[in-house]
Every structure is written in structure tokens, then in C-alpha cells.
Design brief:
The complex is a heterodimer.
Chain A: H1 33-50, E1 58-62, H2 70-73, E2 77-80, H3 86-96, E3 101-107, H4 108-114, H5 116-125, E4 129-135, H6 170-175, E5 181-186, H7 190-201, E6 206-212, H8 216-223, H9 228-238, E7 239-241, E8 258-265, H10 271-275
Parallel strand pairs in A: 1-2, 1-3, 3-4, 4-6, 5-6, 7-8
Antiparallel strand pairs in A: 5-8
Helix pairs in contact in A: 1-7, 4-5
Chain B: E1 2-7, H1 8-19, E2 23-26, H2 33-42, E3 49-52, H3 56-68, E4 73-77, H4 79-94, E5 99-105, H5 124-127, E6 137-138, H6 143-160, E7 163-169, H7 170-173, E8 176-181, E9 225-227, H8 241-256, H9 259-262, E10 265-268, E11 275-280, H10 281-296, E12 301-306, E13 308-310, H11 314-320, E14 326-331, H12 337-344, E15 349-354, H13 363-373
Parallel strand pairs in B: 2-3, 2-4, 4-5, 5-7, 6-7, 11-12, 11-14, 14-15
Antiparallel strand pairs in B: 1-8, 6-13, 10-12
Classes of the chains: A alpha/beta, B alpha/beta.
Bound molecules: iron/sulfur cluster.
């Protein structure tokens, strides 16, 4: 559908942060990615309105995948780069121009699968970046293959005998390194995404937010919850919110459920501070 | 201006600083590492950053990111690292990101012989990434030229908004020679074109008449889009054939239309030569000595040295070789640029001299090869 010069413009207070001429977005009905984007925009809006963040300094960097398409729709500086390389790209930009606020958004395959090495080293450096990793438990854009977070035993297009691997707990992995902030949110609780993003925007160093999301189209089909509302409600029933949860509680287990909350919050010297470039 | 006695790798580092490079990212690899080590010390002195990354993939992606943050950026590596960089080189091409990649060649395939020389990557550096494009490739043959060509590589990358490969080799890397280093006021330093329109009229991939789009960078208020997908002038993904053709043709033609800015050769004893040796990089040093030895024994031989390995200007090379009976292509590999010369030279016979020497090929190797076919 051609929506150039769409009449949608001016319809929503956050439209000023969106490229409304690129709407409607490509995400499937019932997908959690729009909820995530909306929550992040609200956090940015609060920071911009209170004057602690300059709009022109925000840069969205994404790799490849459904989540990575977020950079299509934001009306900031944006880079839709290579699969897995958003963290590396953003590190270069931040070092070159320290005033930028680099926001990386990607799926778990993009960020922790193909991009895992960059993720680990950015966290080890306490590099001044915000990474939002959308965990939807599957490779969605490529049509339903096993992802780093896919539950063990699940049948996907590449695990016709059931996934033999345990899911990757990125919260625990990143917490073992040197980040200043690690949190887990879920699209079933949009205010948490907003709150964690708002917090991260006010901090320095490496900030990692995992957002559990619903992919009814692919993951829902694999797990037998194809209806978006049912999948959403199922995920909702599996999460609990905790104040200052312990990393030992962070297990990523679709059967046992998920603990949301702020796992790590500290003020270690960031990479740019250590280089004297802030 | 300073007269110094330095290595080829140091000359590349100095050339980059003189050209305005202020961000370097890299991963250790022989025989390129001393470029990074030198810059680790020097760049902070001029307000720049040298960053050692977890691998070559991160290094070149960071270089692309830094260039979009408005800073001239570079990485250097050797064959195995270049292989890892090929993907992001494609990203730099389609996003029209100015940057310089130095490939200090060593022997391959695979890990090969890390400490020894070769010219076996000449086709990879121009054809590595998938898709259609033109990447300028420059090949120095001396320490002085390592400095001068690094400056030229940055100037091409900035003015044509393209990645440029500086193709050195292990011999040039660790060769020490006297060289003259010039300061920015003494050399031409080109910077990328900036937009002249206000942000709401700016389209990040709308070219001027020269096919080059002015480049706004992060943090300048232009809401730029860096897009790895095939895109229109706004940077929006499009999958129709017209957008695709327009983009790919422009990516190629913006460079081919200004080939005179990129392409350069040098001839020795060409006018009366029956035999012309075509060579480049460190091998051309041996080729020149071979040509002189042949002349001393009465053979009319000349040298055509390619300073640019891609794109080649067909008419110029053809003209240089027009009166030669035989054209020999001397290169330190199994014979690669010879395919281009065979395509270009119409009058004389073209013969390959594949030297495959881990050290500098000797003039005798070349003289013998020529005498065999004379
Ligand atoms: S495939 Fe899944 S993740 Fe991708 S847009 Fe559709 S619902 Fe969302």
C-alpha cells in the first residue's frame, strides 16, 4: 500500500518521532515489536521533554531481522546495518562522536547469536551503548528456524526432531561481564519497558535490556498458540516482576516462567570515561 | 615537511594521520599489526582513537560507524582478516561510506605463510564482496608511495564516497627507506561534501550531477538513514528493478566517470621497447631492475608499472603497450592481473610471469622468464 504523504501524520503525540510515511509497518498483526517501539518512544519522549537528552543525538542502530526493522520507522538518525554487527557499528560511531546516544535494537538471533561475540566484548568494556534485545524465541524473519533462545525440545523448521539445545540466558551472560545495567522486561508489561529504557537513557556505560516478545506468526505456530491474544496471555501468565531480582533467578525457561526486573544497576567507569572521551 | 627513515607500515600510518584520519579500528595480524601499534601511540596525540576490537569483523563495522559519525576512519589487515572484512566492505559500498582498508598481503590461501610476502589477493580486494560495485585499489611500491597513496586513498574515499583498498604487501610493510612526510597544509586533503539544503529537504542518497550524494552525519540533525538494503534516494528499501538499477549503476558510474582521479600508471623506457613488462607493488621493483639489466645487454625492454589495480583505464594501458611485440605480466602470484592485460592489449602477445616467491622476486627470475619467450 502506498502511504506517501499519509493522512496518519499528526494523529498520535509520538508521531513526531516516527517516519509516518513508512507506515503501516511490516510487522504481523499481534506482534510484540510495536509495543516495544511505542514504549521506547515514550521513554525517549520523557527524556527529551525533561531536557536530559537531545533529540538530534539519538542514533538507532539495528542489524537484520524483524526487530531490526525498528530503524525503518524512527525519525532519528538510523542505521540498518548487517546481521549481528549493530553493536560493532555503534561502538565505532560512539567512539568517534561521544555525544551521540547509541540505541541498538535487535532480535536474540541478531544480538546474541551471530552478534554474540560483539555483545560480549561491548559488555566487557562497559562500552557506552544501550542494547535492547528482543527475545521472541525463534528466527522469525527467515521463517521459523531455531534461535539462541528457543526452548529445548521445540519443533522448528530446522529442528524437526526437537531442539536439542538449551536456551541462552543473555541476562546471566551479560551480568557475568562488566555492564552498568541489566534488565529484563516483556511486551506484556509495556510500562516496564518504558521505565527500564528511561533509566538506561540516564546512565553511562553498557546497558542491556532484554524484552520478551510475542511472535504469534512463527513462534506461536511452533508452540501451538497461533492466536495472538492467546500467546500474549500465555506469556503474561509466565512472567513475574521482582524488585532487584538476583541473577540466579534469571533462567530463561518457557516452562518455568521468567523473572522480570532490574538485575544489575551500578556506576562503574564506562569505556569512554576511561579513555577520557566523555 | 619532514625527511625520515621509516618502514612502509609506518608510512601508511603517517599518511593516514596527514589525510585527517582520526579513528582506527583493528585486530592484530602479521604483517599489518605495526600500523595499529604505531597509531595506538600517535592517534591520541592528535585527538583520535585507536581501538583494538575482538575481531576484524567488528573492526571494519566500527570503521563504517565512525565514518557515519563524521570522522575519517581506517582499518588495516592481511589476507585472513580481509576475508572476514569482506561483508562489511559491501556495507560500506552500498551505504557510500568513505573509509580506507589497508591489506598488507601475505602468502595464502588460508593461514598461509604469515611472515612472508605475496601478491595473491589482487583479485579478492576488488571482487571480494557479493553484488555489483567498483572498489578503487591502489598499490604502492615504495615507502614514499605508501605515504602518498594513503593520502590519495583517503581523498578518493571522501570525494567519491566509497571504500578504497590500499594494497601493500609484506615486503613494502617492513622495507625501510627515506621518505618525505608532508603536513596537511603541504598536501591536498579532500573532505566529503556536506548538504547545502536544510534537513527537511535533505535526501541522504540523492546525488548531485557528479552522482555523489552530499553526506550528512550522525548528530547533525538530518535524520540520516544508513541502509544496507537496496534503497531509493530517501534511503527507503525498495525491491523494484528501476530502483535497483539506478542504485547499482550509480555506485559503479560515480567511480568510473572519474577514473582519472583514481587511475595512475608509470612507464620506464616505453618508447622504443619491443618487450614491455607490466608489474605492480614490490614486484615492480625487481621488474625495473630486470628491465635495466636487459637494456644493458642490448634488449629493448621497458616497464609499465600499475599504481592503480582497479579500476583499470583500458585506453591508457593499451596505448603504452601499442608498439610492443610481447607484453610480460610479472606478478607474485599464479598470474591474475594478466587476465586484464590479455583483455586490454590487442597488438602484441601477452605472457604471464607468475613468480610465486615468498620473498621479493629477484630481477634474475624476471630476466630468465623473459629470455625464455623472447
Ligand atoms: S514474524 Fe513474528 S516477529 Fe516477525 S513481525 Fe511477524 S509476529 Fe513479529
Amino acid at each position: 500500500m502506498d502511504v506517501e504523504g499519509s493522512s496518519v501524520k499528526g494523529y498520535h503525540p509520538l508521531d513526531k518521532y516516527l517516519r509516518t510515511d513508512r507506515l503501516p509497518h511490516i510487522w504481523c498483526p499481534g506482534c510484540g515489536l510495536g509495543i516495544n517501539l511505542g514504549s521506547i518512544m515514550r521513554a525517549i519522549d520523557r527524556r527529551v521533554r525533561e531536557g536530559s537528552l537531545k533529540r538530534e543525538n539519538i542514533v538507532f542502530v539495528t542489524g537484520i531481522g524483524c526487530s531490526a526493522r525498528t530503524s525503518f520507522y524512527v525519525n532519528f538518525d538510523a542505521a540498518h546495518t548487517l546481521h549481528g554487527r549493530a553493536v560493532a557499528f555503534a561502538t565505532g560511531a560512539k567512539l568517534a562522536k561521544p555525544g551521540l546516544e547509541m540505541i541498538i535494537i535487535g532480535g536474540d538471533g541478531d544480538i546474541a547469536g551471530i552478534g554474540g561475540n560483539h555483545l560480549i566484548h561491548a559488555a566487557k568494556r562497559n562500552m557506552d551503548l544501550i542494547v535492547v534485545m528482543i527475545t521472541n524465541f525463534v528466527y522469525a524473519m527467515t521463517g521459523g528456524q531455531m534461535a539462541p533462545t528457543t526452548p529445548r525440545g521445540l519443533y522448528t523448521t530446522t529442528t524437526p526432531y526437537g531442539n536439542p539445545e538449551p536456551p541462552l540466558n543473555a541476562v546471566k551472560l551479560i551480568s557475568s561481564l562488566n555492564p552498568n545495567y541489566v534488565a529484563r522486561a516483556s511486551v506484556t508489561h509495556p510500562p516496564l519497558i518504558e521505565q527500564f529504557m528511561y533509566r538506561a537513557l540516564g546512565m553511562k556505560g553498557f546497558r542491556f535490556i532484554e524484552v520478551l516478545s510475542t511472535c504469534p506468526e512463527i513462534f506461536g505456530r511452533h508452540i501451538g498458540l497461533r492466536d495472538p491474544v492467546t500467546l500474549y496471555n500465555t506469556l503474561r501468565s509466565k512472567v513475574v516482576v521482582k524488585q532487584n531480582p538476583n541473577v540466579e533467578e534469571s533462567e530463561l525457561d518457557w516452562e518455568k516462567g521468567f523473572v522480570l526486573g532490574e538485575y544489575i544497576m551500578r556506576d562503574n567507569p564506562s569505556y569512554l570515561e576511561i579513555l577520557g572521551r566523555r | 615537511m619532514r625527511r625520515v627513515f621509516i618502514s612502509g607500515n609506518t608510512a601508511i600510518a603517517e599518511g593516514a594521520i596527514a589525510a585527517g584520519m582520526r579513528f582506527y579500528a583493528g585486530y592484530p595480524i602479521t604483517p599489518a599489526s605495526d600500523i595499529m601499534e604505531y597509531l595506538a601511540e600517535k592517534l591520541p596525540e592528535v585527538g583520535g582513537v585507536m581501538m583494538q576490537f575482538e575481531d576484524e569483523i567488528a573492526s571494519i563495522n566500527a570503521v563504517v560507524g565512525a565514518s557515519w559519525a563524521g570522522v575519517k576512519s581506517m582499518t588495516a589487515t592481511s589476507g585472513p582478516g580481509f576475508s572476514l572484512m569482506v561483508e562489511a566492505l559491501g556495507l560500506a559500498i552500498i551505504t557510500e561510506t568513505p573509509l580506507v582498508v589497508v591489506n598488507v598481503m601475505r602468502a595464502g590461501p588460508s593461514t598461509g605463510v604469515p611472515t612472508k610476502s605475496s601478491q595473491s589477493d589482487v583479485l579478492q580486494v576488488r571482487n571480494g564482496p557479493h553484488g555489483d560495485y567498483v572498489i578503487p585499489v591502489l598499490a604502492p611500491w615504495s615507502v614514499q608511495e605508501a605515504f602518498d597513496m594513503t593520502v590519495k586513498a583517503f581523498n578518493i574515499s571522501e570525494s567519491l564516497r566509497t571504500p578504497v583498498v590500499l594494497l601493500s604487501d609484506s615486503v613494502i610493510a617492513h622495507l625501510w627507506e627515506a621518505a618525505i612526510l608532508r603536513e596537511p597544509g603541504e598536501i591536498e586533503v579532500v573532505n566529503r561534501k556536506k548538504p547545502t539544503v536544510p534537513p527537511d529537504e535533505y535526501l541522504p542518497y540523492r546525488p548531485d550531477d557528479d552522482l555523489i550524494p552530499p553526506m550528512a552525519c550522525f548528530g547533525e540533525g538530518y535524520n540520516v538513514i544508513v541502509e544496507s538494503l537496496t534503497h531509493d534516494e530517501r534511503g527507503y528499501y525498495k525491491q523494484d528493478v528501476n530502483t535497483y538499477r539506478r542504485l547499482v549503476n550509480r555506485l559503479c558510474n560515480k567511480i568510473l566517470n572519474r577514473i582519472d582521479q583514481v587511475f595512475d600508471v608509470e612507464g620506464y623506457y616505453i618508447n622504443d621497447s619491443k618487450y614491455i613488462v607490466v608489474s605492480y607493488g614490490s614486484t615492480a621493483r625487481a621488474a625495473l631492475a630486470a628491465v635495466r639489466a636487459l637494456r644493458n645487454s642490448g634488449v629493448k625492454a621497458g616497464l609499465l608499472r600499475l599504481k592503480t589495480l582497479w579500476p583499470l583505464k583500458v585506453g591508457v594501458i593499451r596505448e603504452y603497450c601499442r608498439h610492443a611485440d610481447k607484453v610480460f605480466v610479472a606478478e607474485n602470484n599464479v598470474g591474475k592481473v594478466v587476465y586484464d592485460i590479455e583483455r586490454i592489449v590487442k597488438n602484441g602477445e601477452v605472457l604471464s610471469l607468475p613468480l610465486l616467491n615468498l620473498d621479493v622476486p629477484t630481477p634474475d627470475d624476471i630476466v630468465e622468464g623473459i629470455r625464455e619467450w623472447m
